[in-house]
Design brief:
Length: 202
């Protein structure tokens, strides 16, 4: 569905409920990023980053785990203010070729359905999109979802403020022991699995 994986020069969002593999997907991306591409910044807003998980995924994919871990810099940001300021400082340093954000929802929504600051959320996504486009960088973020009972549909949190800047939007869903990824633009679908080696196509 993604033509081989997430693309450089684009802002990609994976949204879904808890348990759909959003963090596991980012761990898999971190392992698969060629070391020759440059440094990777992993912004952890939920406390879910696990270096031992990267080690496991790399080992099972026949990738040397220590260079992978050494190439990843972890930024812990529990508030939107820290996330925005830290990402701005990092991108200004020109030391990174990839940025992963897990997850966009938590610092801006704080577990609720309304964002604390919609303009800040919109500007943050615009900054990431600009970085991806101008530096041909890899930028991937995960996001939570909300259900709209009137429309009977589930939407990524903050979509009304962020959609203009996101180039690829993929919804992750779980049905029993099956997982389904849906491209929200083309409606293309693909099954995937979550295992010891991370996210794999089915």
């Amino acid at each position: 569905m993604l033509g081989g994986g997430v693309a450089f020069g684009r802002l990609t969002e994976f949204s879904g409920d808890s348990g759909t593999g959003k963090s596991q997907l980012l761990f898999t991306v971190a392992v698969n990023l060629p070391l020759s591409a440059g440094r990777l910044l992993f912004a952890d807003t939920t406390g879910t980053f696990r270096p031992e998980r990267l080690h496991q995924i790399a080992t099972l994919r026949n990738v040397e785990p220590e260079p992978v871990l050494a190439n990843v810099e972890v930024l812990e940001a529990r508030t939107s203010e820290r996330l925005v300021s830290s990402i701005d400082a990092a991108l200004s340093s020109e030391g990174y070729s990839a940025v992963l954000v897990d997850s966009l929802s938590d610092p801006f929504y704080g577990g609720g359905s309304l964002p604390r600051e919609t303009s800040q959320l919109s500007l943050f996504c615009r900054r990431l999109a600009f970085f991806a486009l101008t530096k041909n960088a890899l930028v991937v973020m995960t996001n939570g979802v909300r259900y709209n009972p009137d429309a009977g549909l589930t939407y990524p949190l903050g979509v009304e403020h962020t959609a203009a800047y996101i180039h690829t939007r993929v919804s992750l869903r779980r049905n029993g022991d099956r997982w389904l990824a849906v491209d929200l633009a083309s409606r293309a679908k693909a099954e995937y699995a979550i295992g010891p080696a991370g996210i794999v196509d089915v």
